[in-house]
Amino acid sequence: MRSAHDAVMWAIGLLGSTAYEGWCLRWVCDAYAIPVNGLPSARAAADRLTDLDLLDAGTPPDRPGVLVFYQPADRPDIPPELHGCGHVTLTLGGGWEIGTSYRRPFPSAVGIRRHPWLRGRYLGWTHAEYLDQARGR
């Protein structure tokens, strides 16, 4: 598993890339070099983390590398198969986040935005190491 600093540097290295469009959870897991298997979507990960009491609904801490989960509104520019899948980003510190799907319309690239990333529902934040527990490990 990469450190938070290394995960953020990996993510920054993909600014402008569309390679992970529609795959935000895989992007976050790849940033930390951890397997994604067992979690089909960001929303499934958030639900599992909530069940385990590992998702904090408060404001994300002001430090890099924290995972932030959302349930965006289903939009017509998002393919129907992605509706309800949720979204996850990484914090950069100072109220900034980096993630896939930076702009409308879908698809778009990895970009940086202020928290909250989406106008949809903010679900909460967690630490990357808790994804192992969410996967059932």
Describe the protein:
This protein has 137 residues and is α+β, with helices and mostly antiparallel strands. The chain is 23% helix and 19% strand. Helix 1 (4-12) crosses helix 2 (24-32). The relative contact order is 0.27. The mean pLDDT is 87.
Strand content: 15-25%
Q: Judging from the principal axes of the Cα atoms, what is the shape?
A: globular
**What's the tally of helices?**
4
With strands numbered from the N-terminus, the spatial order across the biggest sheet is 4-3-2-1-5
Q: What share of the residues lie within helices? A: 10-25%
Would you identify the regions where 5 or more consecutive residues have pLDDT less than 50?
none
Q: How far apart are the termini?
A: 15 Å
Order of helices and strands: HHHEEEEEH
Q: Average the pLDDT over all residues and give the rounded result.
A: 87
Largest sheet: 5 strands, antiparallel
Radius of gyration: 13 Å
> Which structural class is indicated by helix and strand composition?
alpha+beta
Number of DSSP-assigned strands:
5
Descriptive labels:
137 residues; alpha+beta; 5-stranded antiparallel beta sheet; 4 helices; 23% helix
Please render the helix and strand layout as text.
Layout (H helix, E strand, L loop, with lengths): L3 H9 L11 H9 L9 H10 L15 E5 L15 E7 L2 E4 L11 E4 L6 E6 L4 H4 L3
Helix pairs in contact: 1-2
Brief overview:
This protein is an alpha+beta fold.
